[in-house]
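hi!! sorry for the late reply, been swamped w classes. u asked for the two structures so here they r. pasted raw, havent cleaned anything up. first the sequence of the first protein and right below it the tokens
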Amino acid sequence: MRKAKQNNCTMGRLDGKVIILTAAAQGIGRAAALAFAKEGAKVIATDMNESKLQELNEYAGIQTQVLDVTKKEQIEKFSKEIERLDVLFNVAGFVHHGNILDCEEKDWDFSMNLNVRSMYLMIKAFLPKMLAQKSGNIINMSSVASSIKGTVDTPSLHDRIQARPDPEKAMDDFLKRQKMGRMATAEEVALLCVYLASDESAYITGNDVIIDGGWSL
């Protein structure tokens, strides 16, 4: 039997909280899962990438569940297995490269299903449990692909860069537009998520919280 990695749980800002999050296999989702567990939460990490997701089973406080958040039936079945939760963190997202002329209808449908409809399905499935227990916290992660350019260094970003005709120039362009001269790390975003998941943020509700290295100032 493998011994679970301890993940240095010391501070306990999320002690006793049950947190469900999507897209936990890599990038911001993975960083958030680790940060939540480090602060004492019981983390239920979901993703459709089973092989990458299973790596999180090595860490204390994290259990994994393969889940395709574009599939209503899977979400409803999963929600019935959860007795209670304190935080729902919707992270799953996809940014299609190119403009609308490069985007086929199937690409548009996939993007809307993953970026928008999945949040609706997850919230609809889990909000009743929060209402019944009269407590809960929902965090929705959105993309930087509109007016905000605070780019986060994640595997999905590198995949998009590699799809460009000149990946080296594309990376250079991404860096040049960052006000701080570098990209955000997934771990930096995860620390914000820890705050939003904790009782410390109890008076923050219905707000957009932007982490973009000063781009929007």
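now the second protein. again sequence first, tokens right under
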Amino acid sequence: MGDLYALDFDGVICDSCGESSLSAVKAAKVRWPGLFDSVDSAMEDWIVDQMYIVRPVVETGYENLLLVRLLLELRIPPIRKSSVAEGLTVEGILESWSKIKPLIMEAWDENRDALVDLFGKVRDEWIEKDLATWIGANRFYPGVPDALKFASSRVYIVTTKQSRFADALLRELAGVTIPPERIYGLGTGPKVEVLKQLQKKPENQGLTLHFVEDRLATLKNVIKEPELDGWNLYLGDWGYNTQKERAEAASISRIHLLELSDFSQKLK
């Protein structure tokens, strides 16, 4: 009958870590000017480099803002630090982000929706002023644009990125047009709920269902839902995950570890 692929975007289709980190630095300067005014280009470069290490913990884009500030606080004198950053290391962030995040949201008196809006606004302004540079800060994983262009399977994008940014990158960087009704972005609900919607659509009946993700936690959430037992689950080993997570995934019978070359072949 054919195949349906639900694909995560960041870390599966697109390596957006450079762009999301730079956008987060821009947004952090707006949100916390007192802290970031004195950040020079060398410090900015260091922060962006470290963001590649901690990127596996990010579930939704606004968290990049929190990470950028936390990384800065690792480097500034204790007198300017919040107590949450005391004694913290980059490795510590990677290990304990789910515990750290609520603490810093409270300590810094931050609001999730306000950060989401700010992050989106900063990206919109960057795109408006200089689309070429914004596009250039992203890259598609090798072979993926062609695989999407020539896919014989039905493809949906299921992402925590705002849909307009995923759509712009697909069109501008990959030359791929995916109908807007097949892009489920931030605000369309948790991924498990989107997968339930997809499998109920009349046009998807009889298709073999596949979900490709780079976050192990998301795949584990799918496994908890008996209603989603019909999905084949894949962890992309090229995405934003750690060796420890890949080893754990390999021990879970429902999850297939997927290599990039195999992914491109499957879509074609």
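hope this helps!! also noticed smth abt the second:
The radius of gyration is 19 Å.
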